[in-house]
Structures are given as C-alpha cells and as structure tokens.
Specification:
Blueprint: H1 3-15, H2 20-28, H3 32-50, E1 53-56, E2 58-63, H4 89-102, E3 106-111, H5 119-132, E4 137-141, H6 147-155, E5 160-162, H7 170-176, H8 183-195, E6 199-206, H9 213-226, E7 230-235, H10 252-265, H11 275-280, H12 284-291, E8 295-296, H13 303-306, H14 322-335, E9 339-341
Parallel strand pairs: 1-8, 1-9, 2-3, 3-4, 4-5, 5-6, 6-7
Helix pairs in contact: 1-3, 2-9, 3-10, 4-5, 5-6, 10-12
The chain binds 5'-deoxyadenosine and FE2/S2 (inorganic) cluster.
Length: 359
C-alpha cells in the first residue's frame, strides 16, 4: 500500500467523502493490505451504528417475466430459453407467512418488469402482507414504474424500494442497456421514490463489461451525494444466454473493497452481502460481512421456481428450502462474530440527516 492510499483511507474514515479523482486513486490503489485497513475501519464504523447486528431480508422472487432486455441479465426478454413463471398473490402471501415464522421482519418482493403486476394486483397484496404482519417492512424491487404507481404502492404500505442505478456514467449505462432504456429515467425514478417517502436503495455491479475505475468513482460520488438508505453491490457474473456470455466475472476482492468504502462513505448505510458474492466464492458473503456489510437476503421463493430466477450462471440457493437458507445464513453470520437480528432493520439515521428536503 502506498502512502497516498493510506492517507486516502484515513481521510475517508474521518470525513466520509473524497473527490471523484481521489475515489479513483483509492480504487486503483487496491492491495490486500489496503483492503485489510479499509475493512478494519469499515467494521469500526458499522459497529458504532449497528453494533453486531445483521439484518435478514426474506427475498421473494415473484416473477421472471420482464419487458426489458438488459444485456447482462439472464431473464432479459430476448432469452427464449428462459422458462418463465409468475407467482400469484396467494403464493406470495404464503411465502411471507413462512418467512415470518422463520423470523424475517422484512419481505422483499423482487421481479422483472412484468405487466401482470398492476397497481390493482400489488396494492391489495401489499395491504394483506401488512395486515397479516404489521411489524414487518415491505420492500419492493420491481423496476421502473410511473410516479403515480410508486405513489399508490407507497400509499398501500410499501416501505422501501430497491432500484439499482446500475452505473452513474451515462455512456456506460448505454453500453449495458438497449437503446429504449434511459439513464435519465432511471435516475428520475430514484428521486421520485425518495420524494414519495420510500427508504431507497440504489446500487451497481462490480466488474460489469466496460466498467473503469473512473466509472466506479462516479458511482461512489453519486452515492455520497444521493445518500440512499440502502445500496446493493455485487460482482457481475456472465449468463450463458446473454450477449455478455464471454465477458469475465467481476472480482470478489474488489467488491469487498468497495463495500468497505461504501460503509465509510455512510456508516448508517444498509449494505447487503449479496447472493452474487456468495456465488463467485463459497465464503463470499462472509467476506462481505467482514468488509462492512450488515444485511443478508436469504431466499424465500418457492423451491419449484428458484432455478428459473437466473440472473446469472451458477446462482446459489436454488435447491434449498427457505428454512435451509435461513439457517445457513444465520450460521454464516455467527461464524464471523455477528448476530442475526429479528427486526425490521430500519436505517439508523434521523430523517433529516444528510438529505435535502423532499421536493
Ligand atoms: N451478474 C450480476 N448481477 C446481475 N444483476 C442482473 N444481472 C446480473 C449479472 N449477470 C443484478 C442487477 C439488477 C439486480 C436485480 O441484479 O444489478 O439490478
Ligand atoms: Fe441459501 Fe446458504 S443462503 S443455502
């Protein structure tokens, strides 16, 4: 580790931000030694806000039908080999009940942009989940929708929304997405979600095709500026039925390095150790927790559909029951000296902290 890298790490730990060029230098300054220092600082920052608690989110993959054609994604509409499914509201409620029994207090409804899930379908579903489990949070991860729709879903009781920005660099966004998708609309959706009072999650893939350290620095600046409550990052993993099939996967080590940087940018951030990290390395999620992550998302989807929600190759947990995933992750959390909390796991931040007033 150079003197410059060490100085940047110490400054980030103290001031919680850097200039874009400095973030770029920090990313380029990766060495195992720098990563160890950064992770130690990140764990300190996490402990000061969250102690040893790790939050569990029960992930329900409600549909792999998607109108979009993102070049990296295994469930893109052009993948004719993908066997499509969608869960009914009754099946989704059943998953939530099972999850509640296991100790989950947040349910994440994630899916492709499937026109079946109109507001007329989703709003009663969200109301039912909240009526059955008033002590739970409902998180949606259903892509881009209209302001009116986001408003109605929020009104029905949705607490949080995950919408990865994918990259803060517009030219890079165009490389990863078909021409009909717009960077501007994606960013506008994030601002709308925030204005409607959602706790918002953004995020990006590490090592996606065409990504440079300059682009990662832009992602970090965007996150430092936008101050989301949550941020999902995981390594890019090629899927064999996509145009990026021959591209190399992202790096586990760089993903962990970036998790530590994100923890220092915002010690209150809810930061998952993702399934993609666990897919590339058998101890990937543990490494993520050791780098400063504080959320894990065990799979609650019915086992019968799991293998079909294949965003990338070799995804883990496709054969396991919900209870197995839950127990597996509890053990992994304990193995790194942390504790799985039975809690909604809301962000520990005062509403005004670090945010501009909602427009
Ligand atoms: N590798 C890693 N992550 C992926 N995602 C989609 N496809 C891949 C892939 N091939 C991520 C995207 C998306 C989230 C649901 O999963 O960032 O927002
Ligand atoms: Fe699903 Fe380990 S988290 S089996």
């Amino acid at each position: 580790m150079t003197r410059e890298t060490e100085t940047l790490i110490r400054r980030l730990a103290e001031k919680h931000t850097l200039q874009e060029a400095e973030f770029e230098a920090l990313v380029d300054g990766y060495t195992p030694e720098a990563a160890a220092l950064l992770a130690a600082e990140a764990r300190k920052a996490r402990a000061a806000v969250y102690g040893d608690e790790v939050y569990l989110r029960g992930l329900i993959e409600i549909s792999n039908i998607c109108k979009n054609d993102c070049l990296y994604c295994g469930i893109r509409r052009s993948n004719a080999r993908c066997v499509r499914y969608r869960l009914t509201p009754a099946e989704i409620l059943q998953c939530a009940h099972e999850g509640y029994r296991l100790g989950f207090r947040t349910f994440v409804l994630q899916g492709g942009e499937d026109a079946y899930y109109t507001d007329g379908v989703l709003c009663p579903l969200i109301r039912s989940v909240k009526a059955d489990h008033p002590d739970c949070a409902v998180t949606l991860s259903l892509g881009e929708r209209s302001r009116g729709s986001y408003a109605r879903l929020r009104e029905a009781g949705a607490d949080r929304y995950l919408l990865r920005h994918e990259t803060a660099d517009e030219a890079h966004y165009r490389l990863l997405h078909p021409p009909e998708m717009s960077f501007e609309n994606r960013m506008a959706c994030l601002r709308t979600l925030r204005a409607l009072g959602y706790q918002v999650g953004c995020g990006f893939m590490v090592g996606s095709p065409g990504q440079t350290s300059r682009m990662i620095a832009r992602d970090l600046c965007f996150i430092a500026d936008f101050r989301p409550e949550m941020c999902g990052i995981g390594p890019f993993i090629p899927h064999h039925e996509t145009p990026f099939r021959a591209e190399p996967a992202g790096s586990v080590a760089l993903t962990c390095y970036l998790l530590s940087i994100l923890r220092l940018i915002d010690p209150t951030l809810l930061l998952p150790a993702t399934t993609a990290l666990g897919t590339l390395h058998p101890g990937g999620r543990e490494l993520g927790l050791l780098a400063g992550a504080n959320v894990v998302m065990p799979n609650l989807s019915p086992v019968s559909v799991r293998a079909r929600y294949e965003l990338y190759d070799n995804k883990i947990c496709t054969g396991e029951e919900s209870a197995q995933c839950h127990a597996c992750l509890e053990a992994r959390i304990a193995s790194v000296g942390l504790r799985a909390a039975v809690s909604r796991g809301d962000v520990r931040r005062s509403p005004a902290e670090g945010r501009e007033a909602a427009p």
